């Protein structure tokens, strides 16, 4: 029987590439993000291969998170795989110049949003005693770089939450893992620099960044290596 994966942040970058790879391999999808036009376009493309359902919400809004997860129609209500991917960096400033709004955005989306989505999905996984959760961390969750302060803190938090989830959910047979990429060329830097595309492009000059498809390959490998056992 086919599996269903819920992917947050599927409108762009790593999440979108993962949705496309999962669809190529027959995994049904619940694709999430705030940009409904992109979700619709992706659904249209992928539903030639698999069943696709859209959830359009902001992971910061805990009532919305609960509501949309509860609203999943019968064919999509059993989530086998949760990919906690939605997130971004906002700004790149030394700590004394950082913006409170940027800090709120990173902690609210990357950390609290991941928790809200997980909390909404978990009851069905603990009840069934099965499921697989992949948290998208970062090398920024392992090391800190200049001006990375709060983004790195948010990803260190993801690392700790991932480890905590793994320990706590082991008794239910729920598998928990993280993928911690280095720099990947997506819309990440365009968001970080608030639409300054020239500055964003400069981030990837002088070295070969990863592509979102590279990370999707790793996520798919992790998920299929364990789900099939
Ligand atoms: P993108 O900017 O291309 O994609 C980010 C995704 O997150 C979008 O689909 C966006 O959807 C979604 N998102 C952002 N904010 C919210 C929100 N408030 N509510 C719901 N969805 C949201 O970046 P990446 O693909 O690179 O990033 C994906 C993940 O990978 C992030 O967690 C990032 O930290 C991590 N990562 C990225 C690396 C990189 O170098 N690119 C390296 C290591 C980790 P929408 O705007 O439609 O809501
Ligand atoms: C994104 C990787 O190094 O660009 O998490 O911050 S980095």
Describe the structure concisely for a colleague:
The protein has 229 residues and is α/β, with parallel strands linked by helices. The protein has 8 helices and 6 strands, in the order E-H-E-H-E-H-E-H-E-H-E-H-H-H. Helix 3 (62-70) runs parallel beside helix 4 (100-128).
Descriptive report:
With about 230 residues, this protein is of the alpha/beta class. The chain has a single domain, classed as 3-Layer(aba) Sandwich (Rossmann fold), CATH 3.40.50.720. It is about 50% helix and about 15% strand. The protein contains eight helices and six strands; from the N terminus they run βαβαβαβαβαβααα. The protein has helices at about 15-25, 35-45, 60-70, 100-130, 150-170, 190, 195-205, 210-225, and strands at about 5, 30-35, 50-55, 80-85, 130-135, 175-180. The protein has a six-stranded parallel beta sheet, sandwiched between helices. α3 packs parallel to α4 and α4 (about 100-130) runs parallel beside α5 (about 150-170). The two termini are about 15 Å apart. The mean pLDDT is about 95. Bound molecules: NADPH dihydro-nicotinamide-adenine-dinucleotide phosphate and 2-hydroxyethylsulfonic acid. The site of NADPH dihydro-nicotinamide-adenine-dinucleotide phosphate has 29 residues, from α1 and α6.
Topology overview:
Elements: E1 4-7, H1 13-24, E2 28-33, H2 36-46, E3 52-56, H3 62-70, E4 81-84, H4 100-128, E5 132-136, H5 149-169, E6 175-179, H6 188-192, H7 197-203, H8 212-227
Parallel strand pairs: 1-2, 1-4, 2-3, 4-5, 5-6
This protein binds NADPH dihydro-nicotinamide-adenine-dinucleotide phosphate (NDP) and 2-hydroxyethylsulfonic acid.
């Amino acid at each position: 029987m086919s599996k269903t994966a819920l992917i947050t942040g599927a409108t762009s970058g790593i999440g979108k590439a993962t949705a496309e790879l999962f669809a190529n391999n027959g995994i049904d999808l619940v694709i999430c993000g705030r940009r409904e036009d992109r979700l619709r376009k992706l659904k249209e493309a992928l539903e030639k291969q698999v069943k696709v359902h859209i959830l359009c919400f902001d992971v910061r809004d805990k009532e919305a998170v609960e509501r949309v997860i509860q609203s999943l129609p019968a064919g999509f209500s059993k989530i086998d795989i949760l990919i906690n991917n939605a997130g971004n960096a906002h700004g790149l400033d030394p700590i004394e110049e950082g913006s409170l709004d940027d800090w709120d955005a990173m902690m609210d989306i990357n950390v609290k949003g991941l928790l809200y989505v997980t909390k909404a999905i978990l009851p069905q996984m603990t009840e069934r005693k099965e499921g697989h959760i992949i948290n998208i961390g970062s090398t920024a969750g392992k090391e800190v770089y200049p001006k990375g302060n709060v983004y790195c803190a948010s990803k260190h938090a993801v690392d700790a939450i991932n480890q905590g989830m793994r320990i706590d959910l082991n008794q239910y047979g729920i598998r928990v893992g993280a993928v911690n990429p280095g720099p990947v060329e997506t819309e990440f830097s365009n968001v970080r620099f608030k639409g300054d595309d020239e500055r964003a492009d400069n981030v990837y000059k002088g070295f070969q960044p990863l592509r979102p498809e590279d990370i999707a390959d790793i996520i798919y490998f992790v998920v299929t290596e364990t789900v099939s056992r």
